[in-house]
Amino acid sequence: MKNKLLVGAALIAIFIGVMYQNYGQQDVSEASAEIAQNIEPSALDSALEQEINSILSELYPSDGPGVAVILVKGDEVIYRNGFGLADIEHNISISPDMVFRLGSLTKQMTAAGIMMLKEAGELQIDDPITRFFPDYPTHGYTITVRHLLTHTSGIIDFPSIEEFPEYTKEELTALDVIDFFKNQPMNFAPGESYSYTNSGYVLLGAIIEQISGQSYEAFIQERIFTPLDMTNSYHGNFKNIIPNRVAGYSLGEEGLENSDYLSMTLPGAAGALISNVDDLFKWNTALFGGDLISQESLEEMTTPFVLNNGELSNYGFGLSVQTLRGQALIAHTGGINGFQTYSAYLPETETYVAVLGNTEFQFRVYEGNSMLALAIGDPYPTKEFQAIDSEIVNSYAGVYQTIRGLSFEVSVIDDTLNLSINGGAAFGLGAVSDNVFYLKDSFTHIEFVNADDASGYDLVFYTSEEGSDAMLARLID
Q: Can the keyword Hydrolase be found in this entry's annotation (predicted)?
């Protein structure tokens, strides 16, 4: 499980029946059947199709790991395809019906589950977590369900704990995982800051389990997968035979290798679900179409959290809230052993994309957002890299750190700027100006700005083209 991701919970039968009466199990099933009829792509402009094929075939050669993608406009699938290999050892190509680990795309389903419980009167979003875990050490603070949903609780992200690797092969309950991290120091007071933490979603899974009397797996199956006819979606594990399951790959010292084993009981409600692009289309249609939760609950899920100081985060409940080409973008990434995933939706033009890939070292935002921009007729311009004076390039070398301790090491190799994050692998960057550098085939980029104290440069890190996720890091070495 990597930091971006990672990476329990459910409902009693009577409660399920009540909720189906409120939202209509028959209506949901009929809507899902209608969606299923539209899975095959409609006619797509040949130039657009060629452009998408060009982007994806260059990123994912036929002899390596790849992706399955779906692009939807309104209720029509306008592009659906697979690139690369699902299983390198058996030379099996990826097709779009294949099943991938979702990683943190799981979180939006967990958040929706919490909203279902809220609508049934079983909890309130501002309930303190001590209502559910009376002995949880809150260090004198009030930590709420809302804080867990929005990554503003101050609770440590459990995969960052030094002993974490010792637990990756263990079969654990959500309460076991909570015991692993609950006595760690708080990172900050609840609501003071945004800091992505899988621990909050493990706690949410345990809350769902406690209220419903079911496992997280049973809850998601009965409340989401079954009524939406998501027949290719599961709670991941290694024992069950799952048709069309894709193998995941990591990058080792000698190249590609099979990803390390990870017990899916560890990520749980933070990242244990698996699915395919067709089922994710069904899910997104139901979520934004009012088939699962009310419009009021959806608006709450997609509204950025306001920090204690009045500043907006860019995160709602299990979904990030950003912009793309001037439109609101509701999205999330996922990363887990062997896999990186992305799904995003533009409500204004009802345009949806899902990109599921079977490597953990390639992010999917670039191809996903590029496809969305093409679909709405506002593509991103091609980046033209340029040569920069070596004296300028060398002046940027150093180690930069954010106020939360995330470090960026900038080095120069053969007059090319390289970037390493938190001691990870270094990636070469291309210059688009004297002070802005992009990762190839990515929207991830860094900008160097003059430091306030005139001591040199600060580094601003972005993962999106629009810059709504800017992160400032100051030179420390």
A: yes
